[in-house]
Amino acid sequence: MFKELDPLLHSQLRLAIMSLLISVEEADFVFIREKTNASAGNLSVQIDKLSEAGYINVNKFIDGKRPRTMCKITKKGIEAFDSYVKVLREYIGK
C-alpha cells in the first residue's frame, strides 16, 4: 500500500516553490515569480499556504522605497519535501 502524497505539495506551483527554495538559502518573491511564470496574485496565495503550514518563512520588508518579500524553507518544509520525494519514488518504483 502506498502512502498518500502530501496534498499541500501536490500542487504544481507549491511544489515548484518548494523545489526552488530547497536549493537556495532564501529567495525573493520576484525571483520565484520569474522562475515559476506564476502571476503575482496566485504566487502570493500559494506562498501564504506554505507559510501557514510552517513549510516556509516569509519576511516582508521595505528596501529603500521598494517592498520586498523574501522566502526561506523551514526544517519542517525540508522534511515534508523529502518525504514527498520519497513517497513519489515509491510510486515509480525507484
TrEMBL record:
Keywords: DNA-binding. InterPro entries: WH-like_DNA-bd_sf, WH_DNA-bd_dom, WH_DNA-bd_sf. Residues 13-92 form the Winged helix DNA-binding domain. Pfam families: HTH_34. GO terms for molecular function: DNA binding. This is DNA-binding transcriptional regulator, MarR family.
